[in-house]
Design a protein that fits this description.
The complex is a heterodimer. By secondary structure, chain A is mostly helical. Helices cover 78% and strands 0% of the residues of chain A. Chain B is mostly helical. Chain B has helices at residues 23-32, 51-67, 76-101, 112-120, 128-134, 136-139, 152-161. Classes of the chains: A mainly alpha, B mainly alpha. Chain A binds chain B through residues 18, 21-22, 25-26, 29-30, 33-34, 37-38, 41, 43, 47, 50-51, 54-55, 58-59, 112-117, 119-121, 123-124, 142-143, 160, 163-164, 166-167, 170, 173-174, 177, and chain B through 24, 28, 31-32, 34, 37, 39-48, 51-52, 55-56, 58-60, 62-64, 66-67.
């Protein structure tokens, strides 16, 4: 924790900021990328959102008060950026969020950066049908293996509610996958 | 302490003793011990070969360009024009506000007769042509009538069409 405090101080100090930020990008780019990619699904969109996320982190680092872990704060920004990106994209295409998810899954089949098997594609299609919160919770728990306490800080939701969301998500996914 | 759930009607149903006391604990235990779902752990998502090296360079380049914000140089002539323009705008707005709040706005004191007199005297440049142009659509539906030529039947017909009846006293 002391080490994190020192790192945050380096990020907020104009003299050391750029060097510390370089370290931050190097350390978190992959974790944040995969978190974003699982939400927006295609690589180009994930690239846009990742860059915007780091820019936002850079612009707002001075306002970070250390009320949560730095990692949770960055994950929260990445999550919000991804969701806003999808909503904005749906609005521009004049379609609903649900239709946007369906179109993303359809595009996945032709995506050069997707080499999943049939079952992996089916799983993504099933995840896309989940309500937004359950989708996030499932991805963060199942693929990213985050602890409920960490997810609670990122999503600002109680641990109990997260466990319940994950439970419901798994049940629905099993149902979707066995039905089709 | 009063039981918050005392309003719930039991209707003859019974539950095991202490059922609700440890319900949350048992539910969380069930969820925690749920078997790991048998879904693939790999998503199948791929990325370009050197993506993570490239994206780091892109992000840091964007940030360093944010640090160096261009300073716009404005010539003395342009600067004078901006200042003079701003001063003039402030004076105009101040005069306008003053005029409104001091009640010097003559439009507020005009009566309908004043306006009619002005039009008749030719002070307002409005001709019948202007009126015709402005209300061309409405004029097409207007029929000029002479009230002296109206028969009693016409009047009764008009009143019945517009559902006008004599008020009861």
């Amino acid at each position: 924790m002391v080490q994190e405090d020192l790192f945050i101080a380096a990020l907020q100090n104009k003299e050391t900021q750029n060097r510390a930020f370089q370290q931050l990008v190097s350390q978190y780019k992959e974790r944040l990328y995969w978190h974003i990619r699982r939400i927006v699904l295609d690589h180009d969109d994930a690239d846009d959102v990742l860059q915007n996320t780091f820019l936002k982190i850079y612009r707002n680092i001075d306002s970070f008060k250390g009320e949560s872990a730095l990692f949770s704060w960055m994950y929260r920004i990445a999550t919000n950026e991804s969701l806003s990106f999808l909503k904005q994209k749906a609005r521009k295409a004049n379609i609903t969020d649900k239709e946007m998810q369906e179109s993303k899954i359809q595009n996945l089949q032709a995506d050069v950066y997707f080499e999943g098997s049939d079952i992996q594609l089916k799983l993504q299609a099933a995840i896309a049908k989940l309500p937004e919160k359950q989708r996030l919770v499932f991805n963060m728990k199942y693929f990213e293996e985050l602890k409920y306490e960490e997810m609670s800080q990122i999503l600002d939701t109680s641990v109990g509610a997260l466990k319940s969301s994950y439970h419901h998500a798994v049940k629905k996914l099993e149902e979707y996958l066995t039905k089709d | 302490m009063e039981n918050k759930n005392s309003h719930i009607k039991k209707e003859g149903f019974k539950i095991p003793e202490n059922y609700f006391e440890n319900f949350e604990e048992r539910l969380m235990h069930t969820i925690a011990n749920e078997k790991v779902p048998d879904f693939p752990k790999e998503t199948g998502f791929k990325i370009p070969d050197t993506y993570f090296e490239d994206v780091e360079i892109d992000i840091l380049a964007k940030i360093s360009s944010e640090n160096v914000k261009p300073i716009r140089k404005i010539s003395w002539v342009k600067r004078f024009n901006y200042i003079a323009g701003s001063v003039a705008a402030i004076i105009i707005v101040a005069l306008g506000i003053n005029s409104i709040f001091n009640g010097n706005n003559e439009i507020n004191t005009l009566t309908a007769t004043d306006i009619e007199n002005s039009i008749e005297a030719g002070y307002l440049p409005i001709s019948s042509y202007d009126v015709g142009e402005a209300f061309s659509d409405d004029i097409a539906t207007i029929t000029m009538t002479n009230s002296n030529e109206l028969s009693e039947d016409d009047i009764i017909n008009y009143l019945s069409v517009y559902n006008i009846t004599q008020e009861e006293e």
